[in-house]
Design a protein that fits this description.
The protein has helices at residues 6-17, 38-48, 56-69, 80-90, 107-114, 134-144, 176-186, 237-246, 271-281, 284-301, 334-350, 377-382; strands spanning 73-77, 98-102, 119-123, 145-148, 151-154, 161-164, 191-193, 201-202, 205-206, 213-217, 230-234, 308-310, 318-319, 326-329, 356-357, 386-388. Strands 1-11-10-7 form a 4-stranded mixed sheet, sandwiched between helices. Strands 12-14-16-15 form a 4-stranded antiparallel sheet. Strands 3-2-6 form a 3-stranded parallel sheet, with helices on both faces. By secondary structure, the chain is an alpha+beta fold. The chain has 12 helices and 16 strands. Bound molecules: pyridoxal-5'-phosphate. Pyridoxal-5'-phosphate (PLP) is lined by residues 79-81, 105-106, 108-109, 167, 193, 195-196, 217, 219, 230.
Length: 397
């Protein structure tokens, strides 16, 4: 098998994407409004004066997300981080509780927990899905916790473990079927961070609907965008009603009285953003097909190489939306791996092709370095090996 150096990797990327004479920089994932109804729908909001946190586009957007994902309940929210915080709150996460979460995720996952005064507790992942490893999770719970009438208690800290938060990294389904079984045995609710996973499924179930409640993001770099935005999805009507109530200042319905029965938030998605979202949803299936094509192109170009490959989701009966295609460096030595990665990032950025490493594991950030955690061997081994490749569907020619 052939070995490649970073220069050749970059050449192959340029070739696949047809970027030889390209003057513009290429981001990892860019929005696309060409030939869409975006402007028409935004104009409708402005001309009708319905620009704020309710309106027909919000209703339409939620309905269409519901149809696409199969979620009986959809509540659109200002962004994914706020939607996660609301999900944790509704599932009963209280100040000083712990939430089990991977360290290798976007910082927003952990911040949403911290915003409630709770504590992210980092658990290890499985190296092909990059999601929480269910076997390690169960062993870890058996080692560190005890069941009591108040719930599952971390013996080391005395704090309650009040939720588990699997994340579908880069759109690759994490094994939430197994994780949900474990969570049921321990009676700990599952909040699924499906921020990156619109269009990803396990069996016929859309990611975000395998646990108790799930969150999708529509940030500018995600597969479709509302400018900024997110949504809660769930099968549970009671949870959905709570989410609607708490995201609209907990105001009781009345034509003129202001009666709020809880201290709540004001974070429903504005009509303007939802209108943009509806125009984006019209192209979602095309985007998914193009992204799959791009993923296969990368796989073909980087096959049969001894020191790198493309990360493939090997969870059975699952479909990834291929949000971000990821290059994996397979060198034994961790210094060599880091050097390869840094060189590749350096030369690609010089050419304006803005490859991106996976996030620094959160337990290496000063803000989260003292948080409770498992040994995180897989996380620490894999973090320096992963580089995201340009994955916008409009790159497919
Ligand atoms: C994007 C993202 C979020 C947060 O979504 P925002 O809409 O940007 O607030 C949370 N978790 C993961 C894994 C994400 O990729």
């Amino acid at each position: 098998m052939k070995k490649v150096d970073p220069e050749l990797v970059l050449e192959l990327i340029i070739e696949i994407l047809g970027l030889k004479n390209c003057q513009n920089s290429v981001q990892i994932h860019e929005p696309d409004f060409v030939n869409t109804n975006a402007l028409n729908y935004l104009r409708d909001c402005i001309e009708s004066n319905w620009v704020s946190s309710s309106g027909k586009w919000v209703d339409k957007f939620e309905k269409e997300i519901s149809t696409f994902t199969g979620a009986p309940e959809v509540i659109s929210i200002t962004n994914g981080t706020d939607a996660l915080r609301l999900a944790f709150y509704i599932m009963g996460v209280k100040p000083n509780d712990e939430v089990l979460v991977p360290s290798l995720t976007f910082v927003g996952t952990a911040n949403a927990i911290s915003h409630l005064g709770a504590i992210p507790h980092f658990v290890d992942i499985e190296k092909s899905t990059l999601g929480i490893d269910p076997i390690l999770l169960n062993n870890y719970l058996e080692n560190i916790s005890t069941k009591s009438s108040a719930g599952v208690i971390n013996k080391q800290t005395g704090r309650k473990i009040s939720a588990i938060c699997p994340v579908h990294i880069f759109g690759n389904p994490s094994d939430c079927v197994s994780i949900k079984k474990i969570s049921d045995q321990w009676s700990i609710p599952v909040v699924e961070d499906a921020a990156e996973a619109l269009g990803s499924f396990i069996g016929k179930t859309h990611c975000g609907l395998l646990g108790d409640i799930g969150v999708i993001s529509f940030n500018g770099n995600k597969i479709i965008t509302t400018g900024g935005g997110g949504a809660l999805i769930t099968k549970d009507k009671n949870l959905a009603n709570k989410a609607r109530h708490l995201s609209t200042t907990a105001k009781l319905k009345h034509p003129w009285e202001f009666f709020h029965d809880e201290i709540a938030w004001n974070d429903r998605l504005p009509n303007l953003n939802a209108a943009l979202g509806v125009s984006q949803l019209e192209n979602l299936k095309t985007k998914l097909a193009l992204k799959n094509k791009l993923f296969l192109k990368y796989c073909e170009a980087f096959k049969n190489l001894s020191n790198i490959d493309i990360l493939k989701n090997n969870l059975s009966d699952s479909v990834s939306n291929n949000w971000l295609v990821t290059l994996k460096i397979n060198l034994k030595n961790s210094e060599d791996t880091k050097n390869f990665r840094n060189k590749l990032l350096e030369i690609s950025h010089q050419k304006g092709i803005l490859l991106r490493p996976i996030w620094k594991p959160l337990h290496h950030l000063p803000i989260y370095k003292n948080n409770p955690r498992d040994s995180l061997k897989v996380t620490d081994n894999i973090a320096n090996r992963l580089v995201n490749l340009p994955s916008s569907p409009q790159l497919v020619k």
